[in-house]
Amino acid sequence: MNTGIVGYGAYIPRLRIKAEEIAKVWGADEESIKRLVGEKSVPEIDEDATTIAVEASRDAIQRAGINPEKIGAVYVGSESHPYAVKPTASIVAEAVGATPNLTAADLEFACKAGTAGFQAAMGLIEAGRIEYGLVIGADTSQGKPGDALEYTASAGAGAYVLGKKNLIAEIEDTFSFTTDTPDFWRRDGEEFPRHAGRFTGNPAYFRHVISCTKGMMEKLGLNVSDYDYFIFHEPNEKFPLTAAKILGIPKEKILPGLLVPYIGNTYSGNVPLGLAAVLDQAKPGERILATSYGSGAGSDSFSIVVKEGIEEKRKKARLVWDMIKDKVYIDYATYARIRKKIKGV
Amino acid sequence: MTEYAVPFHWRRFKERYLLIGSKCEKCKRYFYPGRAICPVCRRSGSLKDYRFSGKGKVFSYTIIHVPPKGFEAYAPYIIAIIELEEGCKVISQVVDCKPEDIKIGMPVRACFRKIREEDKSGLVLYGFKFRPD
Amino acid sequence: MFDVFEYTKPKRDVAVIGVGTTKFGELWDKGLKELVVEAGIKAVEDAGISGKQLQLLIGGNMSGGMFSGQEHIGALLADYLGLNNIPAIRTEAACASSSVALRIGYLAVASGLYDFVAIGGAEKMTDVYGSQATTTLAGAMDQETEAYFGTTFPGVYALIAKRHMHEYGTTREQLAMVAVKNHENALHNPIAHFQRKIGIDDVLKSPLVADPLRLLDCSPITDGASALILGPADTAKKHTDTPVYIKASAQASDTLSLIGRRNICTLDATVQAARRAYEQAGIQAKDIDFAEVHDCFTINEIIAYEDLGFCKKGEGGKLIEEGVTQLGGKIPVNPSGGLKAKGHPVGATGVAQIVEIVKQLGGEAGKRQVSGAEIGLAHNVGGSGATVCIHILGREK
């Protein structure tokens, strides 16, 4: 039997700032900004990638119903790890009670660091070397003040307990597409990332997401009509919808996983959260294709079939839409204070 | 704030991350923080590690307006005595709650948050706080 | 409740034969040793003895280390008081450091092993910046269960106040009355940190420190030192016309952190120490003529009324509202101005309370004199009630 999802969990911080609130401060054209993303999630001052990874992981383990000591690997993918050197994964492992008999590491591949962790854990599980793996994509990324990315860089985490037993969803297969394409990067020591403007579109996002998704379906001999849901990495609302159009995917199959208008781009949390939102409503037997995208660049695709037992486990922890709706708005001044964009804070 | 060396914090990681205390198997009482001697049974007691469920109620609270060193960025914040469902009490912050909304008796549940940073280059210290349930 | 040990009579009674104190306030030009020497010399002169007669020196000081980088306070006291070679100890019990010093000195004289013992209390709090002073005082809490999460010392008492208001209906105004009364009393105390009248409104409008406690609910950061000389009761009249006798000396402990308390609205250590003290002195709460209690925060004075037995649990607010503890009332409390207005150099407070009681019993309290003062009680608390030390003094043995 294949590897699959034993339990899943999500975490979205409660604070929100509206795109128009940011736009007001920078004097940008409100209407066009509004068309991209409505609002984004902001972590509280005492939240970081580690704390949100732990919250999502605890929910995942709650749904999985396993003894955390049986987790054999913890992988955390993020581009906002609190330490440049010192793993988030070991803190998460300690905070969920998985220590000491396990392996752990942090991963970086821009927004696809979380899904890269999936593949690493799947390998260990399928080889029979571990029983369960905990994989997380979590970010509390920052955008440079005034830059386009400031409107979308948000915070969120998705966590998955993978294994071979008591699955709520089976991962049929995975496929990846990777090239050296520097569309978005941050040098060590720099506070904010840089991006290559319009180059981030066709040669970067679209080339990798489309090629990977096609490759996934070809490998399995399936096509769009075999899938009930598609989840694409969503840096903004336009890109995933355009990718869907190119692939001939009807809009209804994309919308359940489309969270960016409500919470922004959660970077490494993006596809893990989109997948969690879909798992919150998917029925046994339905098929999901999730494709992540990480700048630099690469995509990982996963073909997933939902199994019986998901309805029962779903109830055991927080739902993505409940967290999206549980929100408190803040203004730019509060946002700047919390995100330490003010000197001397 | 005095910066203590790593072991000072490290030996408390597990209890602060997972909300672990002690249960005396003899008198069935729960204690936070964990103890080596049961204050009731003393040496005839039998204490084992116990991970609390994290669920509890607000027993008393205050809003800290003048924070101690290291907590300046977080003020004002709510500090509360939480009575855990197992019967013993802990003190920590209550988050995701406006100061005007907190009440004695409010049900809360433990969550994992940052406590403070030992400045820009030191450790990040984590622990349990509580959010409205 | 815990056991109350059966009281054993001491070998002999003990008297306070001399007292001395510095002014309390922000004493920029005086370091720890200047404060100690000033108070010590005054006490020795007041007792009319020679320094050479002193056999033991005990000083209460909460944190010379964190306020001045200076530990080994006992040695510092002996050295700068010119008392080299006599044994010198520092006692520490947070804000109860010097009442504990007095207790140890009492035991030394009562046992018959020592005749003349000098007891001091001192704290130099203004050689560090405010946030460091706050951090140092936070050492009185439980570091791991309270301070770690961002609780402050006012925060701990605020938690108590909130619960007391919830359980007994104590009001914000009643808390404010404590500060107002104590400021009024301090107008007549020449050594007080503050000599400034305040009204209830001033308290209620002062900035929030830890809700519901505001700036004027909190005792200040103060420098100061006080000292006294103990001697055998039988020969006390040789040194002073108005010796004051220690009728009781009692101390009790409770959990360091609030979370272990039986009931956070009661300081069990006060109840226990008071019971032992009343038993030793052979009196009851109603026999106390006046008291100096530990109003580090206004709520603590209200709780002290209850725990010392001046009124029922929960009725402390009513007691002050009815004027019972005013200077002209039935049991004047904190005629000195208390910690709030006289000031609270933490290590000095225990002894400073005794100095006030001695002055009252000797009829030397001027405009703040409690009329007909025969028996006074000093109530000193460490931290949020983990140490309580109570002394009862009287004009008769």
Account of the 3D structure:
- The complex is a heterotrimer of chains A (345), B (133) and C (397).
- The termini of chain A are far apart.
- In chain A, the strands form three sheets. Chain A has a nine-stranded mixed sheet with strand order 5-4-6-7-1-8-13-12-11, with helices on both faces. In chain A, strands 3-2-14 form a three-stranded mixed sheet. Chain A has a two-stranded antiparallel sheet with strand order 9-10.
- With 345 residues, chain A is an alpha/beta fold.
- In chain A, helix 3 (49-64) crosses helix 4 (88-95) and helix 6 crosses helix 7.
- Helix content of chain A is 34%, strand content 25%.
- The mean pLDDT of chain A is 94.
- Chain B is mainly β and 133 residues long.
- Chain B folds into two domains: 18-51, no CATH class; 53-133, OB fold (Dihydrolipoamide Acetyltransferase, E2P) (Beta Barrel), CATH 2.40.50.840.
- In chain B, strand 5 (77-84) and strand 6 (89-94) form a beta hairpin.
- Chain B starts with 5 loop residues before the first helix and ends with a strand.
- Chain C has two domains: 14-129 and 222-238, Peroxisomal Thiolase, Chain A, domain 1; 145-220 and 246-394, Thiolase/Chalcone synthase (Peroxisomal Thiolase, Chain A, domain 1, 3-Layer(aba) Sandwich), CATH 3.40.47.
- In chain C, the strands form two sheets. In chain C, strands 3-2-4-7-1-8-11-10-9 form a nine-stranded mixed sheet, with helices on both faces.
- In chain C, helix 7 crosses helix 10 (298-307).
- The mean pLDDT of chain C is 95.
- The chains are: A alpha/beta (345), B mainly beta (133), C alpha/beta (397).
- Chain A binds chain B through residues 14, 44-48, 50-51, 54-55, 58, 82-83, 91, 94-95, 97, 340, 345, and chain B through 13-14, 17-18, 51, 73-74, 93, 95-96, 111-115, 124, 126, 129.
- Strand 4 of chain B pairs antiparallel with strand 5 of chain C.
Summarize the structure.
Chain A is α/β, with parallel strands linked by helices and 345 residues long.
How would you describe this structure in keywords?
heterotrimer; B: 133 residues; mainly beta; OB fold (Dihydrolipoamide Acetyltransferase, E2P); five-stranded antiparallel β-sheet; three-stranded antiparallel β-sheet; globular; C: 397 residues; alpha/beta; Peroxisomal Thiolase, Chain A, domain 1; 2 domains; nine-stranded mixed β-sheet; two-stranded antiparallel ribbon; 13 helices; 11 strands; 34% helix
